[in-house]
Amino acid sequence: MGYQLGVDVGGTFTDVLLMDEESGVTWRAKTPSTPADQSEGVLEGIRKVCQLAGVEPGAIGRVLHGTTVATNAILEGRGARVGLVTTAGFRQVLQVARSYVPGGLGGWITWPKPTPLARLEDTVEVPERMSSRGEVLRPLDEEAARAALAHLARRGVEALTIALVNAFANPAHEQRLGELAAEVLPGVPVSLSSEILPEIREYERTITTVANSYVRPVVGRYLASLTSKLAEGGVGATVHVLRSDGGLASIPAATVAPVNLLMSGPAGGVAGAIWAAGQAGFENLLTFDMGGTSTDVCLVQHGRAQVGRDTVVGDLAVRASSVDVRTVGAGGGSIAHVPELTRALRVGPQSAGAEPGPAAYGKGGTEPTVTDANVVLGYLPPRLIGGEMTLDVGAAEAAVAKVAEAMGLPDVQRAAAGIVDIVNENMFGALRLVSVQQGYDPRDFALVAFGGAGPLHANALARLLGSWPVVVPPSPGVLCAYGDATTGLRDEAARTFIRRFSETSDEEVAGLLAELAEEARATLDAEGVPRAEQAVAWQVDVRYHGQGFEVPVDLEPELVAGGRFLEEAGRRFDAEHRRLFLFDLETEHELVNLRAVAQARPTRVAAPVLEEGGPDPGAARVGSQRIWVEGTWHEAGLYDRARLKAGNVVPGPAVVTEMDSTTLVLPGHRAEVDRIGTLLIRPEEA
């Protein structure tokens, strides 16, 4: 009998899911995150879940891990000191950057330009030059290169990026510089742009590789610590890390290219939501993952998440494939405050995090948070995590009273309702970004709510969006860990190939795609994945000739195998261009980049089927609780989700509790329980 473990580390809690690979039976545990060293919280979660399952840690064969280490290093500015080597004349590539300023017309006045991850004083030039077709125009001056590298060594750089002009076309000079760096800067990790992002556009290639170097020592230390602690705890399992695009990477691959992990945590949630909603029969989804620190949202169409070519973390935008997740600083720990200047209530993005946490957690927190507001309104029961955590209602009321006093409100309930309304509007805006502003009608999608706080706010958000039903999977608080445990290894290979359609042929492009597929498959081969369990898909970046940007177009293997696929790629590009920009052109199409993605077959997990019951959920009702909705108190039924049966219908207002999350059903709505225990919330009139 084999077991595999899914682990998701969030800002407040670490979620662990243990799965029996043969029967599909799962056990879950939730422990507070340990920001100083995330591996401590992971190990504690493993001990806890193994004890629940009666399994020795040594029986675990695979650990699949979603992590925010790389993301946090960027957001908190605690990455490595990066040295950058450029072609002579291109030393200020990061300072020039792209001419983009967020905000309104006055943004260029008020926006503070972010400091580059590699300082100008830590950037050196070397004499060399390649043409855009890979021809050597100026040989590499190795003597000057050694001197430049020695200068960086004296400056104490902790990681090195080598990004030369047109290295995507011929990496020979970068590779030689890498060899010299190993001699001059022994022990300093080196990232080559021709390996991290072998595509055209110097700035994007450079900033992506610099970001890789910036987080590489931090991620490397964490993964080494995790592997060591797992071994000390008796877990000799193979460890894989979730990539931003929803696939898995081995520890060596994740250590060398951690820029692919920047959206690792959110990607696990999307994968879990797709799996859970598929079990309930839904393919078109808006995923809504609300945790303690932030909320992540994503659009899924036909069972596939939107995967973009850009990853944005804070002010940093890099070119790396990632699930198209939008994040807002809105979570259960988001702090509410009333600035003296405006006297207008604000919620977040500051968060109480795991330490000290909301006031209701009793860990010393005193600031009013979204969790405290939910406690005041009666939406959260007095005990959480299966009774392991008792909430301090008095402390929550005292914290929210600060907001009521600052705003001159007569009672804490109105202040708490204002906090919840504002955080809901913030999350509503994020959901519109991935739907309405991308040309999709949210009313055509179900809303999948998960995370520790997602099911608590989902009913209200669905009312704003018109997205029905609200889908609350079983164990929504650990669904990200489900996603980690139900995905497979993935890698991609890319190449710049700028040709008008009239200048190439289906046969030439198919040959190049086949070469890229072999490159991508090599990673899976090295991990022992049989070719029969590997799937390959292709993507081409297309633009109109003369355009300065391109749009990715997916190509299925059967389409490429059939020939004449460029014509279809052009049609798909036109359709996508119309959806994004409301027009298309008669101008000739042009290829820019070719890409192959190799994916191992994901783990198949069977959802347990519930015992059938009638519509009456009375057997699961454990009491009642007063909740404040729209300015008045309501008597809500309190239900234990573990006692619900398939076919039960829970009328609102109701609060449904379980070990890792709480679901709120508002008045005028009801929650139906399907055969696998998913709650489907709809308006009564629906």
TrEMBL record:
Cite the Hydantoinase A/oxoprolinase domain residue spans from the record: 205-490
Fetch the SUPFAM superfamilies from UniProt.
Answer: Actin-like ATPase domain
Q: Which InterPro entries is this protein grouped with?
A: ACX-like_C (IPR049517), ATPase_NBD (IPR043129), Hydant_A_N (IPR008040), Hydantoinase_A (IPR002821), Oxoprolinase-like (IPR045079)
Which part of the chain is the Acetophenone carboxylase-like C-terminal domain? 509-674
Instruction: Tell me which Pfam families the record gives.
Output: Hydant_A_C (PF19278), Hydant_A_N (PF05378), Hydantoinase_A (PF01968)
Q: What residues does the Hydantoinase/oxoprolinase N-terminal domain cover?
A: 5-184
Family annotation (PANTHER family): 5-OXOPROLINASE RELATED, HYPOTHETICAL 5-OXOPROLINASE (EUROFUNG)-RELATED
Task: Please report the name of this protein according to its UniProt entry.
Answer: Hydantoinase/oxoprolinase family protein
The species this protein was found in: Aciditerrimonas ferrireducens
